Amino acid sequence: MLQLNRYPYLLLLPRPSVTYLVSDPEGVRLTFDSSGTVTGEASYSAYGNVIAGGLLNITPFGYAGGYTDPTGLIYLVNRYYDPSTGQFLSVDPLVSLTDQPYAVCRE
Fold this sequence. Notes:
The protein is mainly β. The protein has one helix and nine strands, in the order βββββββββα.
């Protein structure tokens, strides 16, 4: 069960325990186990770089709830995002509405 930015995630890993993911609009901020013990924490820069903590050893979900692949790119539903450059790698599928082909948001 995964529900983005509304309820904690439930992530089943190949371990004998369940890990819960707690997120906000910035991304997955902490994880805890079934006993309520916090097992990991993370903070992100404005462009998605981990600035404190880190959860990749616990879950591939992080910045903005996106999936971080082994290359460090973040899949955000319709396209990949590179936090090291702060840019998407492909054109926004809604570019005709946004007029911002690669932007994260209109500035």
